[in-house]
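During the second half of the funding period, the structural biology subgroup turned its attention to how the target accommodates small molecules. The most pressing case was heme C, which had performed well in the primary screen but for which no bound structure existed. We therefore specified the complex as follows and requested a full 3D prediction, including the ligand pose.
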Amino acid sequence: MAGLLTLEGTIMFIPKAIALASLSAAFLVSGCRSDPVSFRQDVHPVLEHNCAVCHSPGGIGYEISGFSVQSYATLMKGSKFGPLVIPGSSRQSNLIWLLRHGAHPSMNMPKMCKHLVTADRKCAVASEHARRLPGSQVNMIAKWIDQGARDN
Ligand code: HEC
């Protein structure tokens, strides 16, 4: 009797486990594929909020580096030293290295301008509200780049 119960229990249990496992696998796969990051809705608002104060015409970051986050076109153009976004490869995109604080500390973005003190304190004032981007936002931008960095 006891053996039968165990057998029944096992038979009931296996299909359930398989069903659950395949369900979550399907969810994971579709979660990765059918989830395009939008430049207009996801990426641009984050850059505007955190970077535009310095990286648009008139801002200190734009004046020094020529990098503006105003539009898709200016973002893709990069700085006077070249492109910062390599479509399809977040690992090769300097933008992501700077946001992850993976380069020299003086290059971390957003910039905390304590070491760039000018007479008008332009950078210091602009960086008063600057904060490091949370990992989730950097990952989101990296995903957008890996998906081809489209103007979507
Ligand atoms: C408070 C001002 C300030 C803020 C805010 C700021 N930056 Fe900068 N950024 C600068 C300055 C100034 C430079 C010029 C280079 C230097 O002094 O390191 C610079 C340089 C850069 C560069 C290097 C360009 C190059 O090739 O030399 C990148 C990329 C960059 N910023 C991205 C960003 C991003 C993305 C954000 C927002 C998350 C951001 N910055 C926020 C001031 C700022």
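Two results from this model are relevant to the next phase. Residues 47, 50-51, 53-55, 60-61, 64-65, 67, 79, 81, 84, 95, 98-99, 106-107, 109-111, 113, 116, 123, 126-127, 130, 133 surround heme C (CB under 6 Å). The CA atoms of residues 98 and 137 lie 13 Å apart.
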